[in-house]
Specification:
By secondary structure, the protein is mainly β. Helices cover 8% and strands 44% of the residues. It has one domain: Cathepsin D, subunit A, domain 1 (Beta Barrel), CATH 2.40.70.
């Protein structure tokens, strides 16, 4: 289970443990962005500090930002403690606050008390069949 709080701008956030390739461990504050479908992001300062491994140089990956512009960012591999297990994920280098997109939240329940200082809780859902179809 992960806990966080809502900031004064009414952004839900959570602190996650990140393991760097240089042996360091950091606790990084992420903003939860439900409009960000795939990616989890980190700024270059954090990527450099953790000495993360380049997974893709952006040549064949392009994303469209909220303002409609497109960019081809660098992608790095990072190890993250998620639901009490070490998980390797890819993060996109973006010069914003660290963001969690919906891909990381898949299989989780997100609960937000949407007021400044409100509680944020992320819990793992029990496994379900991915092959079930709606009747």
């Amino acid at each position: 289970m992960h806990y966080g709080t809502v900031n004064d701008a009414v952004e839900a956030g959570v602190t996650l443990t990140i393991l760097g390739d240089n042996g360091t461990t950091e606790h990084i504050n992420f903003v939860i962005d439900t409009g960000l479908t795939e990616e989890t992001t980190l700024p270059q300062e954090v990527i450099s500090r953790l000495n993360l491994t380049l997974a893709n140089d952006g040549d064949d990956f392009e994303i469209t930002l909220a303002d409609g512009t497109t960019t081809a960012p660098m992608i790095y591999t990072v190890r993250i403690l998620w639901h009490d297990r070490l998980r390797e994920i890819e993060v996109v280098n973006m010069e914003t606050d660290p963001l969690i997109g919906m891909k990381l939240l898949r299989g989780s329940n997100l609960s937000v008390d949407a007021v400044p200082g409100g509680q944020v809780t992320i819990t793992e859902l029990p496994p379900t069949s991915q092959t079930e179809t709606l009747s």
